[in-house]
Amino acid sequence: MKRLLSVFLALVLVTLSLSACGGKSTKYIIATDATWPPFEYVDEQNQIVGFDIDLMNAIAEEAGIEIEYQNVGFDPLLAGMAQGTYDAAISSITILPDRAENMLFSDPYYVAGQMIVVEKNNTSITGEDSLRGKRLGAQLGTTGEALANDVQGASVKSYNQIGLAIQDLLNGQIDAVICDTPIAEGYANKNTSTLKIVGGSLTTESYGVAVAKGKTELLNKINQGLAAVKANGTIDALVQKWMAS
Hints:
Blueprint: H1 2-21, E1 27-32, E2 35-36, E3 40-42, E4 48-49, H2 51-63, E5 66-71, H3 74-83, E6 88-89, H4 97-100, E7 104-105, E8 110-112, E9 114-119, E10 135-139, H5 143-150, E11 155-159, H6 162-170, E12 176-180, H7 181-190, E13 195-198, E14 205-207, E15 210-211, H8 216-231, H9 234-243
Parallel strand pairs: 1-5, 1-6, 10-11, 10-12
Antiparallel strand pairs: 2-3, 3-4, 6-15, 7-15, 8-14, 9-12, 9-13
Helix pairs in contact: 2-8, 2-9
């Protein structure tokens, strides 16, 4: 009887061990603000797509991790990352010292800047020096908003989505929009009869994948995956896919 009990217990332990080994792997929640084409946006099939999404998928594949996206506004995204609500975030996030106090950052994966978009017939704004006293629009929580707030005498309107700022610009409710280089170029190239970019790039910024503080193992995996996709030409291919005019 004792021998049968020992065999039974041994079988139970083996079953539990196999069950643990065959359990589900960790799924990481990746936050993104899908209102920022061509980096992240919701397509006609209601799917989140874009440069960042393809990149993060490639990183996850190389790193051997399972991910799931959560669409959230940019300002709540930054707050959520600071609070550890999400495991990581990819959303054209500029690596900044003040942000790095609240979250970790991967190695840079894209270099952008801030540019000024105005209506095609606007002749009063030609660059940064002519923004004084103007009505400026930018997305909430972005470096574009920070730059707009630094302009002397300007009135700044912040938006949850950059597309709403562009719409107000076209409607004459604001004089200019400050946003990231590829976003500015994307809207200007698609609306050549109504929009234009003036001046050069106002800043030089590097995008990184944000990771919740304390999740250094995840950060290391993301950096390993990022290094692999840089080496195999994936990023160059994605630039051609999403940025080519």
